[in-house]
Amino acid sequence: MSEVHVHCSNGNGIVLDARVAQVDGLTEAREYAKGVARSLMTVPTLRDWRECWLEVSDDLGEEIFAMPFSSILGKPH
């Protein structure tokens, strides 16, 4: 089991998030990150989430992967 930390970035800086999870591998870490993104997108805001991404790091602060919100939102119609 590994500990992962999820942070949101919009290109102007990183918004540190207190979300920490214990996951079993990269697949579970990606599913957790998608859930975090969906959770953030449910909050009413004027933010265009397609400009943001999640940065997922391990307990040492090393980035494991980055996930653009656009990969979850899809393309605008």
Description:
- It is a single chain.
- The protein has 77 residues and is an alpha+beta fold.
- It has one domain (2-73).
- Helix content is 26%, strand content 34%.
- The longest helix has 16 residues, at 26-41.
- The chain is globular.
Write the layout of secondary structure elements.
Layout (H helix, E strand, L loop, with lengths): L1 E8 L4 E2 L4 E4 L2 H16 L11 E6 L4 E6 L1 H4 L4
Antiparallel strand pairs: 1-2, 1-3, 1-4, 4-5
Main attributes?
5-stranded antiparallel sheet, 2 helices
Low confidence ranges: none
Helix content: 25-40%
The total strand number stands at: 5
Integer average pLDDT: 84
Structural class: alpha+beta
Give the total of domains: 1
Count of DSSP-assigned helices: 2
Question: What sequence of helices (H) and strands (E) makes up the elements?
Answer: EEEHEEH
What amount of the residues lies in strands? 25-35%
The general outline is globular
- Distance from first to last alpha carbon: 40 Å
The Cα radius of gyration reads: 12 Å
Largest sheet: 5 strands, antiparallel
